[in-house]
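Data deposition worksheet. Section B asks for the primary sequence of the deposited chain exactly as it was used as input, without tags or linkers unless they were present during the calculation. Section C holds the resulting structure in C-alpha cell form. Section D is free text for depositor observations; keep each observation to a single sentence. Incomplete worksheets are returned to the depositor.
Section A, Depositor: J.P.
Section B:
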Amino acid sequence: MVIIRIIARGLKDGQEQEAIVDLFDYYDEATGFTAMERTTGWHAAIMAGFMARRQTPLGGVPVELAVPGQVFVEEFRKRGFDLRVSL
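Section C:
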C-alpha cells in the first residue's frame, strides 16, 4: 500500500487558500504491479503518452505547465488510482 498526502497553502486571488491531495494505492492483482511500482512509474508513462500524441509543447516545459492538471488527473483515474482532491 502507498499513501501520499500533499498539502498546498498559498494565496489565490489575494486570499489564503489550501488544497489537499490524497492518493491511496494498492497491489494490483490483475497486472502484478505493487503499489510502489504503480505510483513511481505511471505518471511518467502518462506524460510520455501525452508527448507521443503531441499534446504537450515542444522543448523543456515543466510537467505542471505542459498538461492541464484536470486532464492529467482524468488519465490517472482511468488507470484505477484513488486520487482525492479537496479545495
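Section D:
The two ends are 25 Å apart (CA to CA).
The first strand starts at residue 2 and ends at 12.
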